């Protein structure tokens, strides 16, 4: 359950290029104190799946207390095959999960259309499930669909939010390659078997 507020993304025109700043705000500022433990329904939900338009906090499964913003090129830019590179400084902070996505133009297959994740790194400076590190020192990239996913991860001593990094996707008819600072993280090919435990498939 993810909520984006358009007012949380500011675009500032600086000479010949744009600098976009996306900043978080608190969910309770939008729905009132204590709402992380109640049911929250989006008034203008953009999901085609109505089950994704509301969520209920219960016990320690509270609603995400942080709202984010999103910058999108939907309706203005689309392409098939090529190289896309983004120079970005990822934010840091608990409950902040910055992601760079490529979404399908038409969603021809509905929820199964999936997305390409150029980069994802949680903002927590310390976060572990007791087995794996999930903090801001870990970067992930790959593909996510309702049938499954294939994600690649890399770790470093410093947080990925400490400075700007170059994230790149090279998309050809026979593969999708993922890079961070010119280091290849992995590649996905059409016949690769996806992991259903990540994408939510059965």
TrEMBL record:
Pfam family, one: Glyco_hydro_16
One example of a Gene Ontology biological process annotation: carbohydrate metabolic process
Residue stretches making up the GH16 domain: 16-202
Superkingdom, natural source: Eukaryota
Gene Ontology terms for molecular function: hydrolase activity, hydrolyzing O-glycosyl compounds
Protein name from the UniProt record: GH16 domain-containing protein
Organism: Homalodisca liturata
